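Following up on my earlier thread - several people asked me to post the actual chain instead of describing it. Fair enough. Here it is, all 193 residues.
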Amino acid sequence: MKNIANKMLNKHSDELRKIGLLFYILNQVENKLNMVIQIFFSEFNQLKGLIFNQALLDEKIFPSLENKRKFLLKMIQIISEEAKKRNMNFDEKKWKKVCKSISELQVIRNKLAHKFLSFPEKNTAAYILRKKYDRILEEEKQGRGHESFETKRIDLDEEIKKAEQILFDNEKLITDFLPQAWRIVDVNIPNAQ
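Reply from S.P.:
Thanks for posting it. Predicted structure:
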């Protein structure tokens, strides 16, 4: 078994390194998301912030990045409603777009983590997927055969580029979102406009 793993590592080291980089970026996105939520709530009251931060890091309460992403979406929705009541500016669409991009990154990560991968070309990972029955029937009607499986390819360089942009956008949650959100909820924070 060790020889098989070593052969795979030697033969596809670039691709495996890139998959590892995608996982690393997703972990960084989650860390930034944790940071945004923690900082937002710790400014209200240190003890309340500490209690909330402990809950946020407890995998039994917030078991996944998806739970944290949905929590941030709920925060964005509530802050946006409050901004409208107070006739204040808040870029709800921008922050929801950041949350959506996190979800898109999770989809790619899940494909890479939960599929049996092959590496048909340099910088490409591929997996086989069963076609849906309706699609097989449609292809038969069109005279294109009736293969029941298809190969899905993932361009690792392209996904890394997207992931790096998502990480960059996620960092704006700290630099841009928090000051906007604090201004709206009236948290007295230095330098918040």
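Residues 13-42 form the longest helix (30 residues). That should answer part of your original question.
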